[in-house]
Design brief:
The complex is a heterodimer of chains A (315) and B (358). Chain A is mostly helical. Chain A contains twelve helices and two strands, in the order αααααββααααααα. Chain B has 358 residues and is mainly α. The chains are: A mainly alpha (315), B mainly alpha (358).
């Protein structure tokens, strides 16, 4: 009996362990999906370069951390503080990426307003290629590790091993989602954004500066992408091709119901949790495509996603 | 300015509108037929490659440019065509039978993929086809008894009735011939009720349906035919590559196929050829550019896809109709020389082009 009890305990532990890995990976998918959904909901544009924006954010954070490390060496108070340069770099990256989002919207995507959605899709695919080449030109192709205070350490709770970085990802995601919820629910700008996403023309008539709202939406989703990049950097190394997980995040967004913010997170979690379990119990390599299998199954069974919020126009 | 006066009904059926077109297309045909006399081995190979891209492009154009269904998964059909053809050849099926069989198999797979795609439009379809492509790639990677898995498989040399087509010149003519047939087939298809139905579905599903077009059948046919052309290109591509491995067909390939039809000009078969020339010869241009430019630019990793992406972005912003669209404008400008009106091709934008009700 005792033996069986121990075996059972081991499988429970194993399941929990996989669940933790899955949840933290799922949060990353969810964050990228959140960026997709924000942009799609507000502007009806599909940003295929979201994953590459995440990559860019991670690289910018990498450079900022190095810069702050160098700078803080002259300031004894700050250099004594562990993680100070990381915290400054985190905030700096969010600001830089938000500015980048605005520039992108002004320069590249505003001329595309009124063009068919397919053209915008192709445009953002092209943009992804360009971003990858630019990142390759600046930072090179070899993978780099982000100097993050969350890297390496682990909690050990009764045999259950939880990495600091996993905790950081989950906590960061929860914090971001909470902030976003409060922002959309209680601030004037947030409510204006909701209005613009529901009906652009009506929003314009009641005096909401729709173009500025679009720019702001791009800024926010670029910042979210950057946050996702920084959080995932201790788990995956940073290289110009890391943006390809954006494709899985895309699947997550559709599984959750394209156009629903909680749906994006739930879809991300679903796909993130499925992956380690598939990797353990099913033939090798299948975990790579499990996101797409879930996506196809979802599209056949319930094309509008888990949280259906948009109805397709029929005419 | 040329005005065509139609004096009998056959003129409506002719592929060429007037003698001017006949002359120029005849000249082009002569040029490509005589090209092996002038070009060296390397450039013959590159041109054969361009023709293969163009055959695949015909397939993508039928689906994206004429039926209005965006697919990000056409690399899968290319791969399925290549592997099916190579496998049939290793089983001892002769080349002349194996190519149509591989093509038919691709058409069948395309039809199957088209079935669930009926319920989806726009971005959902694009991402679903992308998912299909990833899953197909996984199957190819792991079905080792047929595809050789990661080790890949060697493609036997093409032989037709005991005559080897392996050299650059015969292979050039083989690709050219199949491209000619494909373009001819596509041209005729687009003039038939089926092709007209494709265009009607692209422009408005509701009005097409109310005119009595069976949406489900039309979309599935479009998928099947598109997959067939792409698979045909894949079977030729297998000989060009010589050794098939799973990493030859990726999401990148799908995107390149899509890029080709967008840069060439959506909704025109000429655009397919322009796009294929662009896609096939740009790497050469970049390679030449590398020698000229300072070294640090040439050493940027991922430079080639970056330039592809940049060109795509510039085309979409400044010339959404692609190379063919630009050529049509230039021709009109030349036709009406001093009297060209800029507003003729003024882009019409419909603000609030929304796809949702709420």
């Amino acid at each position: 009996m005792a033996h069986r009890g121990r075996a059972q305990r081991r499988t429970t532990l194993e399941t929990l362990q996989l669940l933790i890995i899955g949840v933290s990976q799922g949060c990353v998918y969810g964050l990228i999906a959140l960026g997709f959904v924000l942009i799609y909901k507000a502007t009806e544009m599909v940003n295929f370069a979201q994953g590459d924006m995440m990559m860019l954010g991670a690289f910018i954070a990498f450079s900022l951390i190095e810069a702050f490390d160098w700078l803080f060496a002259f300031v004894p108070v700050l250099s004594a503080l562990p993680g100070a340069s990381f915290a400054f770099a985190f905030i700096g990256t969010l600001l830089v990426m938000a500015a980048f989002g605005v520039v992108l919207e002004r320069g590249v995507l505003r001329p595309m307003i009124g063009e068919p959605p397919f053209a915008v899709l192709m445009l953002t695919i092209g943009l992804g290629f360009v971003l990858r080449a630019v990142a390759g030109a600046i930072w090179g192709n070899q993978p780099r590790a982000l100097n993050s205070p969350f890297a390496g350490g682990t909690f050990d709770i009764g045999g259950l091993i939880i990495g600091y970085e996993n905790v950081a990802i989950v906590a960061g995601t929860a914090l971001l989602c909470g902030t976003l919820y409060l922002f959309f629910r209680f601030t004037r700008v947030g409510v204006a954004m909701q209005a613009a996403s529901q009906n652009q023309l009506a929003a314009f008539y009641v005096g909401i500066p729709v173009k500025r709202v679009f720019a702001l939406v791009w800024a926010i989703s670029a910042a979210i992408a950057a946050a996702a990049g920084i959080l995932v950097a201790p788990v995956n190394l940073i290289d110009p091709l890391m943006g390809f997980i954006g494709i899985k995040a895309f699947a997550a967004a559709i599984v959750g119901g394209f156009g629903s913010l909680p749906g994006a997170i739930v879809g991300g979690l679903l796909i993130g949790i499925a992956e380690p379990f598939v990797a353990l119990h099913l033939p090798p390599g299948l975990s790579e495509v499990s996101a797409f299998v879930i996506l196809l199954a979802m599209l056949v069974v319930r094309p509008q996603g888990i949280f259906a919020s948009l109805q397709q126009k029929k005419v | 300015m040329r005005f065509v006066l139609k004096t009998n009904y056959a003129q409506d059926v002719n592929l060429f509108l007037h003698n001017g077109q006949r002359f120029w297309y005849g000249l082009l045909a002569l040029a490509v037929l005589l090209a092996p006399l002038v070009l060296d081995r390397f450039y013959l190979g590159e041109f054969a490659f361009v023709y293969i891209w163009a055959i695949a492009g015909v397939g993508v154009m039928l689906l994206v440019g004429y039926t209005g269904l965006v697919s990000l998964g056409h690399a899968a059909f290319l791969a399925i065509g290549a592997y099916a053809h190579a496998w049939l050849l290793t089983q001892g099926v002769p080349f002349v039978l194996s190519v149509p069989l591989a093509t038919a198999f691709c058409a069948f797979v395309g039809y199957i993929v088209g079935l669930p795609a009926l319920r989806m439009t726009g971005i959902y379809l694009a991402i679903a086809t992308l998912a299909f492509e990833r899953i197909a790639a996984w199957v190819i990677e792991h079905w080792e008894s047929v595809t050789g898995g990661h080790f890949g498989m060697r493609v036997p040399d093409p032989t037709v009735f005991g005559m080897s087509l392996d050299g650059p010149v015969p292979f050039y003519y083989l690709c050219l011939g199949i491209l000619g047939l494909s373009l001819f087939a596509a041209l005729n298809l687009l003039r038939s009720p089926t092709g007209r139905a494709f265009i009607a579905v692209r422009d408005s599903e509701v009005s097409a349906e109310s005119m009595g077009i069976n949406l489900a059948r039309t979309k599935c046919t479009a998928f099947a035919l598109s997959a067939a052309f792409t698979g045909l290109a894949g079977s030729l591509l297998s000989h060009r590559i010589g050794y098939l491995a799973p990493d030859a067909f990726t999401v990148q390939t799908s995107i390149q196929l899509l890029l080709m039809v967008v840069v060439g000009g959506l909704g025109s078969l000429q655009g397919v050829v322009y796009g294929a020339i662009f896609l096939g010869l740009l790497p050469q241009a970049i390679a030449i550019g590398r020698d000229v430019l300072p070294q640090w630019i040439g050493e940027i990793p991922g430079l080639e896809p970056g330039i592809f992406g940049l060109i795509l972005v510039l085309f979409l912003i400044f010339e959404p109709l692609g190379i063919h669209g630009r050529w049509v404008k230039i021709r009109l400008w030349l036709d009406q020389f001093p009297l060209y009106r800029r507003a003729t091709y003024k882009r019409q934008r419909s603000y609030l082009r929304t796809e949702r009700v709420r």
